[in-house]
Amino acid sequence: MEVEGLAGGKDFVLYPGGGCPWDWNEYGTRHDPGIQPAEVRELLDRRCTVVVLSQGMERRLKTMPETLRLLQEAGVAVHVEETRGAVDLYNRLATESEPVGGLFHSTC
User: Pick from 59, 55, 57: which is nearest to 78 by CA?
Assistant: First the structure.
């Protein structure tokens, strides 16, 4: 993936004003059980009100129910999409007024 202002890579965490590579090893993330609550805390800390979570190109990356619950309890709108759709949605939302964040997995 290519993200403006960042070196190319395969997985990214994006938030208003920036982003960084997404290191799955930081919290032990795997395709199953998927995106963990700890993975989205940085997005909450950055006051994102909308979050886009990608499932990978083949939709193999799951999202833990606890992660969705955490975001919903924080009043954050959550979108879970296949990667191409997630990228398109994120790019559209990022041009609007809501602070948007996202986790993007570019493979499987």
Answer: 55
Query: Is 4 inside a domain boundary?
Result: no
**Helix ranges, the chain (H):** 37-45, 65-73, 83-94
Asked if residue 95 is part of any domain, the answer here is yes
Q: What does the block give as tokens for 54? A: 């990608």
Q: At what angle do helices 65-73 and 37-45 cross, to 10 degrees?
A: 20
Q: Is residue 3 part of a domain?
A: no
Residue entry with tokens 């996202």: 102
- State the pLDDT confidence band at 1, using cuts at 50, 70 and 90: confident
**What is the span of the domain harbouring residue 51?**
11-105
Domain harbouring 95, CATH code: 3.40.1230.10
Q: Strand 50-54 to strand 77-81: parallel, antiparallel, or no bridges (unpaired)?
A: parallel
Q: Which phi and psi (to 5°) does residue 9 adopt?
A: -170, -175
* Domain count for the chain: 1
Residue 4 confidence (pLDDT) = 81
